[in-house]
Design goal:
Keywords: NADP, Oxidoreductase
Order of helices and strands: EEEHEEEEHEHEHEHEHEHEHHEHE
CATH topology of the largest domain: Quinone Oxidoreductase, Chain A, domain 1
GO molecular function, one term: NADPH binding
InterPro entries: ADH-like_C (IPR013149), ADH-like_N (IPR013154), ER (IPR020843), GroES-like_sf (IPR011032), NAD(P)-bd_dom_sf (IPR036291), Quinone_OxRdtase_PIG3 (IPR014189)
Bound molecules: NADP nicotinamide-adenine-dinucleotide phosphate
Protein name: Quinone oxidoreductase PIG3-like
Distance between the termini: 10 Å
Domain Enoyl reductase (ER): 10-323
Low-confidence stretches: none
Number of domains: 2
CATH class of the largest domain: Alpha Beta
Structural class: alpha/beta
């Protein structure tokens, strides 16, 4: 089959389409003929050599895909050949075929094309497992999402609105904020021109928000603590603003705050299957109702993966960038 190979750690130009061996199918896996895959920030880190695939995972990038099941491992019971599905992968999506444990596979949601279905597994599993399963974001609470126009952000806005939250977002341009509002965000904060702590306080009568979904890490840590309400929860999923910082911890006690973090890719297949089950139960119905829609910015042929990475690193996109084998 053909796959995108990271020929050496480096810039987008190291991504090259090459002929490689087909994946080996394990007993609990299905083989998917990939119709589409989507980019995630982590792919750019893997390309640069700073985010190696977990042990046993495919060396090729790609954390999600959609496509048709082509063959079944001998212990597979949930799926049959010909099923149209999408899947959460530990790697290997940038290819014509990929093998994946059956528990990480989801049906294509009703009303969504096979191509666009690839935009959901990674964002749905990340957002559901963090701010809903772990931070227990509930109806009537307020949520601040950093990077509202990201793949993660555009999904988080929609599902949080659907579940009855008041949603705040940060983004780096007025155009991005306008888009976030068009899909449900209540309050848009331009992080380049506004102080998000002051704006959050102003919009919440001085209280702060209940939950924050953060992709910045160190650079926002103190300001995130300062933006939380009593019993607030900060969930960190990314370190775009660095990994170490000094922080005044007093707010943790005074406001009874919880700080959590998690990475999806390094979870065990059993743990991922549990999340995928919860996503099927709680998120897929919202997509079927048309309340959560795919947000696809641009699709490239798989051979143009380098161009797609350049677009992601320029941060001009809103939502997901797809690759089509
Ligand atoms: N832990 C996990 O399991 C997990 C899983 C998936 C994703 N993630 C993380 O989630 C984040 C989003 O991922 P993605 O794939 O959706 O990437 P993406 O579409 O490339 O989004 C990156 C986002 O970061 C925003 N950003 C950059 N600097 C910012 C700042 N100072 N303040 C606020 N926002 C800022 C960008 O906003 P502007 O363009 O407006 O600057 C952009 O929306 C990444 O950090 C990724 O590593 C974590």
């Amino acid at each position: 089959m053909k796959a995108i190979v990271i020929t050496t750690p480096g810039g987008p130009e190291v991504l090259q389409l090459q002929e490689v061996e087909d994946p080996q199918l394990r007993d609990d896996e299905v083989l998917i003929r990939v119709h589409a895959t989507a980019l995630n920030r982590a792919d750019t880190l893997q390309r640069k050599g700073s985010y190696p695939p977990p042990k046993g995972a495919s060396p090729y990038p790609g954390l999600e895909c959609s496509g048709t099941i082509e063959s079944l491992g001998k212990n597979v019971s949930k799926w049959k050949i010909g099923d149209q599905v999408c899947a959460l992968l530990a790697g290997g999506g940038y290819a014509e075929k990929v093998a994946v444990p059956e528990g990480q596979v989801l049906p294509v949601p009703p009303g969504v094309s096979l191509k666009d279905a690839t935009s959901f597994p990674e964002v749905a599993c990340t957002v559901w497992s963090t701010i809903f399963m772990m931070s227990r974001l509930s109806h009537g609470e307020t949520l601040l999402i950093h990077g509202g126009s990201s793949g993660i952000g555009t999904f988080a806005i929609q599902i949080a609105k659907y579940r009855g939250s008041r949603v705040f977002v940060t983004a780096g341009s007025e155009e991005k904020l306008a888009f976030c509002k068009s899909i449900g965000a209540d309050v848009g904060i331009n992080y380049k021109t506004e102080d998000f702590v002051a704006r959050v306080k102003e919009e919440t009568g001085g209280q702060g928000v209940d939950v924050i979904l953060d992709c910045m890490g160190a650079s926002y840590y103190q300001r995130n603590l300062d933006s939380l309400n009593f019993d607030g929860r900060l969930f960190i999923i990314g370190f775009q603003g660095g990994v170490s910082t000094e922080v005044d911890l007093r707010a943790l006690l005074g406001k009874r705050l919880t700080v959590q973090g998690a990475g999806l890719r390094s979870r065990s297949p059993e743990n991922k299957a549990l999340i995928v089950d919860e996503v099927a139960k709680n998120v897929w119905p919202a997509i079927a109702e048309g309340k959560v829609k795919p947000v696809v910015y641009k699709s490239f042929p798989l051979s143009e993966a380098a161009e797609a990475h350049r677009l992601m690193e320029s941060s001009q996109h809103i939502g997901k960038i797809l690759l089509l084998p």
